[in-house]
Amino acid sequence: MAGKFFHKPGAELADRVPPGQHLAKGFPVLTYGETPHIAQADWTLSIMGLAQAKTFTWDEMMALPQVEITADFHCVTTWSKLDVTWRGVRVTDLMAQLVVDPEATHVMLHCYGGYTTNLTLADLVRPENFFAHTLEGEPLPAEHGGPMRLVVPHLYAWKSAKWINGVEFLGAPALGFWERNGYHERGEPWAEERYSDR
After folding, report:
1. Which residue of 42, 109, 151, 189 could cross-link 18, Cys pair, CB 3.0 to 4.6 Å?
2. How much is the pTM?
């Protein structure tokens, strides 16, 4: 089974595939619970917590600068997919539209369906992170987090929140869904931060 869907990376990919990972031949879908289905016209992104409250509609997000980004994607369940091409809005371009309290140090990401995951503010605002609405030239499918998801390439994929609809700025650390259920608070693939040592 493993050979049919996954294969071990060669030595030439040692600088791109973190320890313990296998390359996926497709793009696996892992979801806890039911998959939300949200029409673009109904989608919104709410900014809350230690920031000036604001809600972005789909059209308002589309009016921000749009970029195409190719990035590697690493799942905590030990598979990786290289060179995934997305289109969306850089986190830094969204942040330029916000007024955030200088006391903010962390964020909680909220999603349709009730999922949450946490990041430090420093991990969120890296220039390679973005809100994706297109995958390989097609509208992002619901099973991959459409109509909009966050993509955080430098951390395990559970931090790349599917079906995102809120960013809550916090003044202290807090734990999201998987973090409360045994996963690592940060999730750095190269350090194999899979599970909590709490």
Report:
1. 189
2. 0.91
Exposure b/e, 55-94, CB count within 10 A at least 16 = b:
ebebeebeebeeeebebbbbbbeebbbeebebbbbbbebb
Looking up tokens 């099973």 gives 143
Can you give the residue range of the structural domain that contains 97? 38-180
Residue 4 CA: distances (Å) to CA of 24, 26, 101, 115, 179 = 9, 10, 50, 31, 31
Q: Does 198 map to a domain?
A: no
For 123-133, what is each residue's pLDDT tens digit? 999 999 999 99
